[in-house]
Amino acid sequence: MEKIRIIEASKHIGEMVRIGGWISNKRSSGKIAFLQLRDGSAYFQGVVVKSEVEESIFDLAKSLTQESSVWVTGIIQEDTRSKFGYEIHVKEIEVIGESKDYPITPKEHGTEFLMDHRHLWLRSSKQHAIMQIRNEVIRATYEFFNNEGFLKVDPPILTGNAAEDTTELFHTQYFEYDAFLSQSGQLYMEAAAMALGKVFSFGPTFRAEKSKTRRHLIEFWMIEPEMAFMDQNESLEIQEKYVAYLVQNVLDNCDMALDILERDKELLKKYTTLPYPRISYDEAVDLLQNNDFDIEWGEDFGSPQETFIANQYDQPVFILNYPKAIKPFYMKPHPDRDDVVLCADMIAPEGYGEIIGGSQREDDYEALQTQLEKHGLDIKDYDWYLDLRRYGSVPHSGFGLGLERTITWLSGTEHIREAIPFPRLLNRIYP
């Protein structure tokens, strides 16, 4: 008898198999018990017919409690009534671990209660579906960049300097040195690009930003490609190709997860069509002012402004060339204007906000040194970064995609906290 996972059921129709799983729910009549089984790979139904099993097995099936773990032995059958398409006709049940008074019941629970029990809430079908989409985005990311000729490089998590706003850094003591948790691997990825051409990183980043919005986490994961000999326009083409690839792979490989989440697949399909629309920062400000938004040129966009701009399009939209004053020191100025830089944010549709930020990097030594000084940064801390401009500098560009924001959008989830297994929020570090 073969031990299988639920997801493998289609390969074993008519066979007697053994499956280890948990009881997510159950119901019974006088002659049949229906067990909702999950094993981490999928959910399906176990059918226990009183006339086909020993009396003790049927009594056990009726007495099983929510989230008890079991071994079930039975025959896989097709089930045309379910989306999964298969079920198991149970012949034997063995309890592995009993579950008593499971705290998360089918009734409604508050957000704080579910966050306090996140270690158990992950077992729900909705969370399982979101984690499947997260896994697919990660898998497709590696596949995309490998296919495009990128090398994976791992920047350090402990750093001695800031990539962006120094007020958002988590400080720690590194023996006799001051150190910080990484807010971005970008500066190190630029060094890697000068050595290896096209590179990408995928790892955790940290922002000590005291924000409570549905778009913000304290700890999150970023995909950060850097590309030598590439300008901003070429980088935009990579960005939209990458995002469309992610959407298509989620559609291809997460069909059941999207159904569980009741995600509109036809809407997602629109996001695979390229190119994505582009609008300049100047045009975006005009659009907002003409629609009664109180905003002046030079201000950054907040969530309401981004949502309004995104709603003018059926796809993700790039906002190009923001004012230099509100962007980091490393961005290259526009060749025809000194007040804006060669950068772009990709804004996701449906109110999900920015999912990518990118730019062409400043490749001139003296210009970069001047910008570091203007931002009040210690030149000695960035001497190694300036070396990249001393020794064979080239035009180069890069971007960062926020994994959790992207998953929130693709899954149609309201809050970013659902897109990571154990969210770290302003007032939450448990569990």
UniProtKB/TrEMBL annotation:
Pfam families: tRNA-synt_2 (PF00152), tRNA_anti-codon (PF01336). Residues 133-431 form the Aminoacyl-transfer RNA synthetases class-II family profile domain. Keywords: Aminoacyl-tRNA synthetase, ATP-binding, Cytoplasm, Ligase, Nucleotide-binding, Protein biosynthesis. Its main location: cytoplasm. GO terms for molecular function: asparagine-tRNA ligase activity; ATP binding; catalytic activity, acting on a protein; nucleic acid binding; transferase activity. This is Asparagine--tRNA ligase. The lineage of its organism: Bacteria, Bacillati, Bacillota, Bacilli, Lactobacillales. It catalyses: tRNA(Asn) + L-asparagine + ATP = L-asparaginyl-tRNA(Asn) + AMP + diphosphate + H(+). The keyword Secreted does not apply. One of its GO terms (biological process) is asparaginyl-tRNA aminoacylation. GO terms for cellular component: cytoplasm. It comes from Marinilactibacillus piezotolerans. Belongs to the class-II aminoacyl-tRNA synthetase family. Its EC number is 6.1.1.22. It is found in: Cytoplasm. CDD domains: AsnRS_cyto_like_N, AsxRS_core.
